[in-house]
């Protein structure tokens, strides 16, 4: 029996030393020390021993069991440490590798141009005002010296929702709303960016939905030369000092006198092409001195206060600045077009 116990100890220690992982080690524990294991079997035969031999054999069996247990524990510690090493090696991060580029979205070119124009005017002391896109006929037309039935209403073909409500055809109603809020008090110096809607036929320079930025300045002693100077600074900052600019006399019922501003076409260098319809020029804004009727309707004393206003089309400005040949590119969301204005790729 003594020999059998020694044999089992040697066999177990050998297998423990060779155990490759924690599962194998546990199988060995169960095989040698479990209830159905060989050591238990040997101990079951102790009843046949003499009273003298029994305690000696019991002590030896305990020794063998302890030796196997402590060896299993030691091997378990070794195997656990090796497993941690392996995991650490597999999860090692090389912090010196270059980062993967993140694909970020970009602002739409129109948003960028609107923000650029806003910054330019904010730099000249203007604040930004906003108004509703679904507008009352009163603010869109009547308060701007365009009573019902006025022929100049045809200049801006409108989308009516009811007889009194329409999609605004320009950003000028924000002028009327701002003046009304100020209750006849100056000075006023605002720009108003936003979407506008007209029943225009879509072509290279016209869209039925587009954006405008309105400007309004009211104070004592505001003159046409102030408007001219402001538009000149704007155009030079936007397009560069070398681009040609012209002001033409025009007509708007809410300004008197009225002008329109054209910029030489970048696509053809002013020689005439399909973008500028052969004229060499593209109109970017309408402007003028605020009509005394408009000032009076909003509660201003037109003998004391004068003002200028302008309304520009950011799409046309972006086309001229970047050489874009068709306004429809802004709305068709062709990723190849939009990517050209990306700041991250
Ligand atoms: C107006 O809308 C006036 N409210 C502008 C104004 C404001 C005049 C204040 C005087 C004082 P007009 O219809 O010309 O004017 O439009 C102004 C600008 O909007 C044009 O110069 C052009 O740049 C742009 N625009 C007009 N129609 C379209 C269109 N269908 N598609 C794209 N841009 C357009």
UniProtKB/TrEMBL annotation:
UniProt-listed Enzyme Commission number(s): 6.1.1.20
Q: List the residue ranges forming a coiled coil, or say none.
A: none
**Domain Aminoacyl-transfer RNA synthetases class-II family profile positions:** 111-320
Q: Which cofactor does it need?
A: Mg(2+)
Which GO terms label this protein's molecular function in UniProt? ATP binding; catalytic activity, acting on a protein; magnesium ion binding; phenylalanine-tRNA ligase activity; transferase activity; tRNA binding
Matching entries from SUPFAM superfamilies are given as: Class II aaRS and biotin synthetases, tRNA-binding arm
Keyword list, A-Z: Aminoacyl-tRNA synthetase, ATP-binding, Cytoplasm, Ligase, Magnesium, Metal-binding, Nucleotide-binding, Protein biosynthesis
Its BP terms in the Gene Ontology are:
phenylalanyl-tRNA aminoacylation
Tell me which Pfam families the record gives. Answer: Phe_tRNA-synt_N, tRNA-synt_2d
As its record notes, the protein acts as a catalyst of:
tRNA(Phe) + L-phenylalanine + ATP = L-phenylalanyl-tRNA(Phe) + AMP + diphosphate + H(+)
Q: Where in the cell is it found?
A: Cytoplasm
Give me the residues that bind Mg(2+), please.
256
Q: Which GO terms describe its cellular component?
A: cytoplasm
How is the cofactor bound, in the record's words? Binds 2 magnesium ions per tetramer.
- UniProt xrefs under NCBIfam families: pheS (TIGR00468)
Protein family according to the UniProt entry: Belongs to the class-II aminoacyl-tRNA synthetase family. Phe-tRNA synthetase alpha subunit type 1 subfamily.
Q: Which PANTHER family match?
A: PHENYLALANINE--TRNA LIGASE, MITOCHONDRIAL, PHENYLALANYL-TRNA SYNTHETASE
How this chain assembles, per its entry, is: Tetramer of two alpha and two beta subunits.
The record ties this protein, via HAMAP family, to: Phe_tRNA_synth_alpha1 (MF_00281)
What name does UniProt use for this protein? Answer: Phenylalanine--tRNA ligase alpha subunit
Q: Which organism is it from?
A: Mesobacillus foraminis
Could you read off the lineage of the organism from its UniProt record?
Bacteria, Bacillati, Bacillota, Bacilli, Bacillales
What would be the name of the gene that encodes this protein? pheS
């Amino acid at each position: 029996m003594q020999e059998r116990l020694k044999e089992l100890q040697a066999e177990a220690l050998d297998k423990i030393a060779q155990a490759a992982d924690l599962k194998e080690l546990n199988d060995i524990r169960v095989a040698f020390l479990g209830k159905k294991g060989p050591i238990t079997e040997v101990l079951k035969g102790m009843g046949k021993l003499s009273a003298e031999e029994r305690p000696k054999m019991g002590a030896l069996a305990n020794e063998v069991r302890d030796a196997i247990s402590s060896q299993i524990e030691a091997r378990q510690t070794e195997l656990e440490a090796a497993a941690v090493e392996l995991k650490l090696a597999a999860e090692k991060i090389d912090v010196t590798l270059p980062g993967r580029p993140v694909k970020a979205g970009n602002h739409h070119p129109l948003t960028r141009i609107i923000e650029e124009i806003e910054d330019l005017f904010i730099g000249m002391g203007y604040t930004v005002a906003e108004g509703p896109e679904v507008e009352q006929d009163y603010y869109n037309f009547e308060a701007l010296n365009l009573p019902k039935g006025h022929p100049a209403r045809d200049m801006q073909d409108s989308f009516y929702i009811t007889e009194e409500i329409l999609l605004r055809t320009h950003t000028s109603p924000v002028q009327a709303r701002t003046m009304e809020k100020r209750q006849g008090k100056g000075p006023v110096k605002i720009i108003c960016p936003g979407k506008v809607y007209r029943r225009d036929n879509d072509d290279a320079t016209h869209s039925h939905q587009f954006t405008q930025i309105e400007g309004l300045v009211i104070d004592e002693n505001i003159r046409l030369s102030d408007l001219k100077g402001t538009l000149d600074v704007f155009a030079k900052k936007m397009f560069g000092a070398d681009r040609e600019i012209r002001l033409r006399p025009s007509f708007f019922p809410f300004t008197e006198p009225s002008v329109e501003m054209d910029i030489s076409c970048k696509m053809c260098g002013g020689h005439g092409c399909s973008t500028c319809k052969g004229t060499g020029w593209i109109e970017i804004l309408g402007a003028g001195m605020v009509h005394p009727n408009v000032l009076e309707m909003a509660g201003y004393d037109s003998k004391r206060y004068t003002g200028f206003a302008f309304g520009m089309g950011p799409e046309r400005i972006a086309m001229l600045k970047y050489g874009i040949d068709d306004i429809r590119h802004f709305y068709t969301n062709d990723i190849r077009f939009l990517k050209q204005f990306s700041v991250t790729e």
